[in-house]
């Protein structure tokens, strides 16, 4: 049994002793316990000298877009839609879970987030892809919430099972490192790599402090900036390319050139 169970919460020294004996916790969990106990003491008008906690910040795992799309393609319909939403908007899991049908304007192609987590800012996305809108529109509307009344744990459990199955099928263990929040890291990295505008990324993620944004934005190599190039000869072809994530580059001899990072 954890030493934490035997601590007297009204005796800070007892809590310190329990923390010192607890060897199985990670530094992140230790830090969270210290912060939670500090709030407990504040509520009870008590104080303590917080023990030191050396949290080593690690660079988050950033998958390729192909790996993300493989997961989306292999998941059940509702889970796939949930992942596509996280991929395009960088919402947190809880924010996406609370998304309501009234927050989506299919006609004007708008998605609004008015209930951000972690004291974040409300956000508005005015360019979701047709793929995402079609996936959302195909979901049953049996609840005011887009993803129904299932708990976050249920959604995560369904995703974890599908992820294991897909990773095994494709023989790619990297897929097992992809979590819901991984898509937020990925999107932040992609947005910064595309725009080189940290303020844009901060607003996109809904952060109030640019210091928080710096934690999420990773400068990584993208296969030497290799691109897939496509040519559009008419408006319909150009529209399809843009909806697939391609960016317009230039016109050559009457042909429109588009590119998308590999």
Question: Can you describe this structure?
Answer:
The chain has 262 residues and is mainly α. It folds into 3 domains: 3-43, no CATH class; 65-216, hpI Integrase, Chain A, CATH 1.10.443; 226-261, no CATH class. It contains 11 helices and 6 strands. The strands form 2 sheets. It has a 3-stranded antiparallel β-sheet. It has a 3-stranded antiparallel β-sheet with strand order 4-6-5, covered by helices on one side. Strand 5 and strand 6 form a beta hairpin. Helix 4 (77-89) packs parallel to helix 8 and helix 8 (180-195) packs antiparallel against helix 9. The N and C termini lie far apart (49 Å).
What is this structure's SSE topology?
Blueprint: H1 12-21, H2 27-43, H3 65-74, H4 77-89, H5 93-97, E1 104-105, E2 110-113, E3 123-125, H6 130-137, H7 152-170, H8 180-195, H9 198-205, H10 210-216, E4 227-232, H11 235-243, E5 247-252, E6 255-261
Antiparallel strand pairs: 1-2, 2-3, 4-6, 5-6
Helix pairs in contact: 3-4, 4-8, 8-9, 9-10
Query: Ends: how far apart?
Result: 49 Å
Main sheet strand line-up: 1-2-3
Largest sheet, in brief, is: 3 strands, antiparallel
CATH architecture title of the largest domain: Orthogonal Bundle
Number of strands: 6
- Secondary-structure class: mainly alpha
Rg from C-alpha positions?
22 Å
Give the overall average pLDDT. 89
Instruction: Name the CATH class of the largest domain.
Output: Mainly Alpha
Apparent shape: elongated
Q: List low-confidence stretches.
A: none
Question: CATH topology of the largest domain, anyone?
Answer: hpI Integrase, Chain A
How much helix, percentage-wise, in residues?
40-55%
């Amino acid at each position: 049994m954890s030493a934490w169970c035997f601590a007297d919460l009204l005796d800070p020294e007892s809590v310190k002793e329990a923390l010192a004996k607890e060897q199985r916790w990670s530094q992140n969990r230790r830090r969270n316990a210290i912060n939670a106990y500090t709030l407990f003491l504040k509520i009870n008008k008590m104080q303590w000298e917080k023990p030191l906690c050396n949290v080593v910040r690690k660079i988050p795992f950033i998958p390729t877009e192909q790996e993300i799309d493989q997961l989306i393609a292999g998941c059940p319909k509702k889970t796939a839609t949930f992942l596509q939403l996280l991929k395009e908007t960088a919402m947190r899991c809880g924010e996406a879970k609370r998304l309501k049908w009234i927050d989506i304007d299919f006609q004007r192609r708008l998605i609004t987030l008015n209930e951000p987590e972690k004291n974040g800012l409300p956000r508005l996305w005015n360019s979701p892809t047709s793929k995402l809108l079609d996936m959302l529109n195909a979901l049953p509307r049996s609840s005011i919430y887009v993803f129904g009344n299932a708990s976050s744990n249920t959604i995560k459990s369904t995703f974890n099972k599908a992820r294991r199955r897909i990773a095994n099928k494709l023989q790619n263990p990297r897929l097992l490192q992809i979590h819901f929040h991984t898509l937020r890291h990925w999107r932040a990295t992609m947005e910064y790599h595309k725009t080189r505008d940290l303020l844009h990324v901060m607003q996109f993620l809904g952060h109030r402090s640019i210091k928080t944004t710096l934690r999420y934005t990773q400068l990584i190599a993208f296969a030497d900036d290799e691109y897939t190039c496509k040519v559009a000869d008419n408006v319909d072809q150009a529209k399809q390319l843009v909806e697939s994530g391609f960016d317009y580059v230039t016109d050559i001899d009457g042909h429109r050139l588009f590119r998308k990072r590999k």
